[in-house]
Amino acid sequence: MTRPLIIGLTGSIGMGKSTVAAMFEELGVPVFDADAEVHRLQGPGGRLLPAIEAAFPGTTGPGGVDRAQLGAQVFGNNEALARLEQIVHPAVAAARQTFLIEHAAQPMVVFDIPLLFEKGGAAQVDRVVVVSAPAEVQRARVLARQGMTPEKFAQILARQVPDAEKRASAHHVIDTGTSLAETRATVRALVNELQQSGC
Fold this sequence. Notes:
The structure is a single chain. By secondary structure, this protein is an alpha/beta fold. The protein folds into two domains: 122 residues, Rossmann fold (3-Layer(aba) Sandwich); 69 residues. Helix content is 51%, strand content 14%. The longest helix has 25 residues. The chain is globular and about 50 Å long. The model has no long low-confidence stretch (mean pLDDT 91).
């Protein structure tokens, strides 16, 4: 069975990955957004709510997972985080497989996976595209987010593979420290290159 070329799109927090994923979609490339799938699974009526409530009592309600409550139980607790991941990751993997089947006729698809390197997902894609920006740009973007603190940012960074390592391991790097127009042109050129190479 033929299948699309699988592009693994990743990048550290605040690097502009969601923006780049949207640019792929604008060009007609289907994108599987792992974070969005997690939100669906944990949202109102989400399939994972019973398992999450059983493992972390008091963290779910009619609106789905109470992210503040769950975060309070999980953040900085490796054992609790591992328990949560054992609930979430298999469900996301199954949804990703369904997505791939649904788009089997496409020349390429994008898997938008924030922790591609951290969770060993790079071996499951054909091309790794890393979204990157200068450290000072990244810091400014992240600290502008509601509820973000320098301490929380430092903790998140500590859990992620350093940007330099990601860039070194990538097949392609997209710089988002430039204008949106320049980034969009870079994405378009990459899609054209992959299509012309027969994927």
